[in-house]
Design brief:
single chain; 692 residues; alpha/beta; 31 strands; elongated; binds nicotinamide-adenine-dinucleotide
Length: 692
């Protein structure tokens, strides 16, 4: 993939950059990306390898303690642009990526590093620097022993200016030095005093991109070349995002490393306590606004989700809407479960509980339902006053970045929510950081590892892990066809990649044949295809490695005597597709009945009575959900109460509600999200004994 140069965009400036970085510069190596405060495409920053902070309207004086009314101030400031571009700069600095600041871009870097501005140069100097019709030309002098000098090989030169403000030389930030100035002492260029531990950074007050002699003047052409070289040479750990529907790389994003994660943690430490002091009603309003933004951006978000994980577009929409429903319950009930509780009050003594936040919690998440499983954790965590370091799965990174963007747009401060980008190695770094709680959603294997690894920190750790969820069809059911269709959906929705997908089915022998026939008929009626196509029920399986595992489960089952009724193999259509697969004559020696498949495959087993069904349902290391279909509620509840699982379903399956706890047992994890338990999970109760 080409290296991406992020250019902060305004309609008036971008054409100049298209002209400056011409085809010969870009070739097959670079491409330009617009980073637009108007579109707020903050999620694209992660894909860029270098940044140009461009010119434009004065920075709002509140950013440098300036006064509001001054000569030549613009009719309108662009505070949103200031905020957007400060995110760009902060990101580039965090990852040591090259930055070129031009005019306003230079002033912004100065201000963000802690410097101040001369708010108006005054009539005389403005005559030299301010653009009226054409850029003004004037001479500058360049400091020896500066990077600018090494780059331009010039001690002086002629530049074009268009500004009426400049950097305040008397209040320069400690980190920066002025490396060029005009005859009137106006600062014309800045760079880091100590460039070690920083990426390339050069800022100039003039406009190299629109100089008349931009192809010959070293103050334009050499700067451009040095910037492009810096991008080419910068060590930028990138991670590929693959579309499972086509196996094509759709994006490359910069991964976090130990240094950037440490910085993110430091940032969160500056914000958490203030966030906890924000009245709960305001935090609730922010989260509700996030939910509104999910609705407003539904189509775009759904497309990104489908492109990353391969689920049919309608299922992506359903997931986002589903997360909004959970937010409704969580925000409606936050006050009830987070407010102070007086437990006992008698003459002179009051005993009460306050629910204090944990602090900065780490959320390491899975890819199969990033909106849903994320919502289970970061929403109640934020409501309870925590800051969150959120690591989306490497297979749902773009979605994670969208979530971050919308939370921030809704009003969650930058120093309260941060995303950690990367895979297992990034997760490992998180485990070594001094965080105040770990909330993990993912596989048993990783969950066990994380639990062991963070044990010595003595902080809360919750694990929502996989399952091998059983479903039992008793002999008293009616309307077998519709039950077969509903339970097939429970097994194959999202290609079976749900933690609570039905993973094994036991059917009473009296209804077995009818049920299996109807089940297979239903499965064979589904359309498999590209997840963006209308009417597709089975999209791509999210990870290539999963296909191999499913093939092994089929081969193992057949070798041990199972019968394949439909499916059983990968589909050769580009991307990662697997036929929906139904196996019968299965038993518990087979992997398909013991190990989480997490794919479009199911084993159906005949049983003679409830007792045999119950024994088989409990013959597992997992314990997430169990389901019974019967006309008789009492009979179903009797069976369900004896299953060793966190959730029991009667005449339904594969569903989650925010009103009741979502919790596994044994290899399916421990602790709970959702419900009152899942709100309080992000708090530490403090008891108060108040005499008087
Ligand atoms: P996974 O365990 O492979 O990865 C989950 C997360 O852990 C990812 O973000 C990954 O980068 C990170 N990770 C991996 N190794 C790590 C390490 N050594 N240190 C720190 N972090 C590490 O799981 P997955 O494939 O993303 O998700 C599928 C699994 O999740 C299935 O087993 C599914 O059942 C389970 N799941 C459970 C629930 C639930 O609520 N119980 C919900 C969704 C998914």
């Amino acid at each position: 993939m080409k290296k991406k140069i992020g250019i902060t965009f305004t309609t008036t400036n971008f054409l100049n950059y298209l002209d400056w970085f011409d085809k010969t510069d870009l070739g097959e190596t670079f491409e330009l990306v617009t980073l637009s405060f108007e579109q707020n495409n903050i999620e694209d920053i992660c894909q860029c390898d270098g940044f140009v902070l461009t010119g434009g309207v004065d920075i709002h004086p509140s950013r440098y303690n300036g006064i509001l009314n001054y000569p030549n101030q613009p009719q309108q400031f662009q505070e949103e642009r200031d905020a957007f571009e400060s995110t760009v700069y902060w990101y580039a600095k965090l990852h040591q990526l090259p930055v070129l600041g031009i005019c306003r871009g230079m002033q912004l870097v100065n201000v963000l590093e802690g410097g101040s501005m001369v708010q108006d140069l005054g009539e005389k100097k403005n005559q030299v620097h301010r653009k009226i019709e054409k850029d003004k030309k004037h001479l500058i002098r360049i400091e020896e022993n500066s990077a600018l000098h090494r780059i331009t090989l010039a001690q002086n030169g002629e530049v074009n200016s268009a500004h009426h403000q400049c950097i305040d030389a008397n209040h320069m930030p400690d980190s920066l030095m002025a490396v060029a100035s005009a005859d009137d002492a106006t600062i014309e260029a800045i760079e880091f005093k100590n460039p070690s531990n920083h990426g390339f950074m050069l800022c100039v007050q003039w406009h190299p991109e629109r100089m008349e002699e931009k192809n010959t003047n070293p103050l334009s052409i050499n700067i451009k070349k040095a910037f492009l070289n810096a991008i080419n040479n910068s060590f930028n750990m990138k991670m590929k995002i693959i579309n499972p529907a086509t196996a094509e790389v759709i994006a490359e994003v910069t991964k976090d490393d130990a240094s950037s994660l440490n910085d993110k943690l430091k940032l969160l430490k500056t914000g958490q306590k203030n966030w906890a002091r924000v009245p709960l009603q305001e935090r609730i309003a922010v989260i509700n606004q996030y939910s509104n933004l999910l609705a407003e951006n539904l189509e775009a978000l759904a497309k990104t989700l489908t492109a990353e994980v391969g689920k049919p577009i309608q299922q992506s929409r359903n997931e986002i809407n589903g997360s909004r429903s959970r937010i409704v319950w969580l925000t409606n009930n936050a006050e009830k479960y987070l407010q102070e509780e007086i437990m006992q009050a008698s003459a002179g003594m009051t005993e009460l509980i306050r629910y204090e936040p944990l602090g900065i919690v780490c959320n390491i998440s899975a890819w199969n339902y990033p909106y849903l499983v994320g919502t289970n954790v970061f929403i109640p965590a934020l409501l309870a006053g925590n800051a969150v370091l959120y690591k989306p799965s490497e297979h749902a990174t773009l979605t994670g970045l969208h979530i971050e963007k919308l939370l921030k747009q809704a009003g969650v401060p930058d120093n309260v929510f941060q995303v950690a980008v990367g895979a297992a190695d990034t997760g490992e770094i998180l485990l070594s950081l001094p965080l105040d709680g770990y909330f993990f959603t993912g596989s048993y294997r990783t969950g066990k590892y994380i639990y062991e690894k963070v044990a010595n920190k003595m902080v809360p750790c919750q694990c929502e892990l996989g399952g091998k969820d059983p479903l039992y069809i008793t002999d008293d059911i009616e309307d077998i066809a519709s039950i077969a269709a509903g339970t097939a959906d429970g097994a194959f929705y999202n290609n079976g990649q749900s933690c609570c997908a039905v993973e094994r089915i036991y059917v009473n022998e009296k209804v077995y044949n009818q049920y299996v026939d109807a089940f297979v008929k239903e499965v064979q009626s589904w359309k498999l295809g590209h997840p963006m196509e209308d009417g597709v029920y089975l999209g791509a399986v999210s990870r290539e490695s999963q296909i191999e595992f499913l093939e092994q489960q089929v081969a193992d089952a057949i070798a041990k005597g199972a019968t394949l009724l439909t499916g059983g193999k990968r589909v050769d259509r580009g991307g990662y597709y697997f036929e929906p697969t139904v196996l019968i004559n299965v038993n518990h020696d087979m992997s398909v009945m013991r190990e989480e498949s997490f794919g479009p495959i199911i084993g159906i087993m005949k049983v003679k009575d409830d007792e045999e069904a119950l024994a088989l349902m409990n013959d597992t290391d997992y314990g997430l959900t169990a389901s019974v279909y019967s006309r008789d509620r009492e009979r179903a509840e009797k069976i369900l109460s004896q299953t060793d699982a966190g959730t029991g379903y009667w005449n339904c399956c594969d569903r989650v509600s925010a009103a009741v706890p979502w919790s596994g047992r044994r290899h399916s994890g421990f602790g709970a999200t959702l419900s009152h338990a899942g709100i309080r999970a992000f708090t530490q109760p403090k008891a108060f004994h108040l005499r008087g």
